[in-house]
Write a structure and sequence with these properties.
single chain, 226 residues, alpha+beta, five-stranded antiparallel beta sheet, 5 helices, 10 strands, globular
Length: 226
Amino acid sequence: MIEELLPDSVVAVEAHGDEPVAGTTLYPEEEALIARAVEKRRREFTVVRGCARRAMEKLGVPPHPVVSGERGAPQWPDGVIGSMTHCEGYGAAALARAADLASLGIDAEPHLQLPQDVLPAVSLPAERRRLEDLALDRPAVHWDRLLFSAKESVYKAWFPLTRKWLDFSEADIELFTDPEDPSSGRLRARLLVPGPVVGGHRRDHFDGRWTVRDGLLATAVTVPHA
């Protein structure tokens, strides 16, 4: 599901269910991060590390612990960029060589309506108006949850480039539908604060894609070098 949202230069590995990828063993540095975690958190943590390890293998990179750095961002081996996500019954990791992409972010969520008080806290008035229009056209999609997921993917792509926080109100995201596929489309995030300088140019927007399938929704954002 995630892989189809990403360019060919990205390697993605998914896991469905709560069982880690076969052969996954946590490094001591990773074990230390979840020493006091509840069992559910341990399973999610191990699942996505297994996905990351398999993605490294597919990318031709030796296995490496994935620990959390500043603001919880995963720390990747030198020359590698990546992103991870997990929700109930699903985990995924996406990796690429830093020479091929400047940054990327992925997010998966259950395809359910957001709790009623969450949408106003994570969205702009213009975004909510657009969601109303989308809901009239395609009521089967939980557009509020999809917008939230897109905000998460945008932040995951933003932070490695800037090392700064990006508030929900600092990116105006527009979701576009695919006329040939009602379950997928693209997205554009207009940055309302100065964006990162990539390839000698300051970026004022990020682009990505989304999909809805089998009770899940997923978003992915990639930032090219040029």
